[in-house]
């Protein structure tokens, strides 16, 4: 192997739906998920790449003393960090990019190689210090829900007012999500947008947009719980925009996206891969 020279949409004050780590998702009980998850999904595919793949950006490589592992899911922010993942063969740390403490060696690398569903065989590794982050497309922040957010009382737009308004939004009937664009509060509900705006104006006089969507926060959480139970290779899942869920899996050749489209409807769940075909 030769040695050559972290995800996130802008979520602001409130998460759009439950976002789960690899360790948390297996403990979720989908019972009582409600109407949105009434149908029992068929068995999800678990594709394995048949050629070289690369990681989608930098990943943590960690050796706790038993050999290097590729951490594609959550990484505990301890010292040294803690994580787990597929074993890596053919990997060399090189001269830069890694740390050692308490018998653990770790670092961040962009990897290329082959993956058989269990073991990643590395053919190339670029440490974070030499990685060109500009090669990754930037995340697009969620925009405002309306073109001209209205302001009613600039004296009622303090940080405390903001917190109170976001809490009030979460208690609205048909609440879907809330997010910030600059100093504008955006709230999505599935019913009575005018009534929702009236309620929110009790605590917020700053810029405000209220819009309607199809699915509530509870609807998306119920489907998210199903995904966590149904996808064996799921790494993270959650909602970063109204009426959608994002799910990252270890690898998808398109068959997992086809499965979620058939199970939940086209466009509801967007699947991405931690490993993508090498170009």
Brief characterization of the structure:
The protein contains five helices and 14 strands.
Protein architecture, described:
With 279 residues, the chain is of the alpha/beta class. It is built from 5 helices and 14 strands. The longest helix has 14 residues, at 217-230. It is elongated and about 60 Å long. It starts with a strand and ends with a strand.
Write the SSE topology.
Elements lengths: L1 E2 L18 H4 L27 E3 L3 E5 L5 E3 L15 E3 L8 E4 L2 E12 L3 E9 L31 H12 L4 E7 L2 E6 L3 H8 L7 E5 L4 H14 L3 E5 L6 E7 L3 H10 L4 E9 L2
Parallel strand pairs: 1-8, 5-8, 10-11, 13-14
Antiparallel strand pairs: 2-7, 2-14, 3-4, 3-7, 6-7, 7-8, 9-10, 12-13
Terminal-residue CA separation: 17 Å
Shape: elongated
Cα-atom Rg, whole angstroms?
22 Å
Give the SSE order as H and E letters: EHEEEEEEEHEEHEHEEHE
Unreliable stretches covering 5 or more consecutive residues: 1-40
Using DSSP, what is the number of strands? 14
Percent range of helical residues:
10-25%
Q: What fraction of residues sit in β-strands?
A: 25-35%
What structural category arises from helix and sheet content?
alpha/beta
Nearest-integer average pLDDT: 85
The major beta sheet can be summarized as: 11 strands, mixed
Query: Number of DSSP helices?
Result: 5
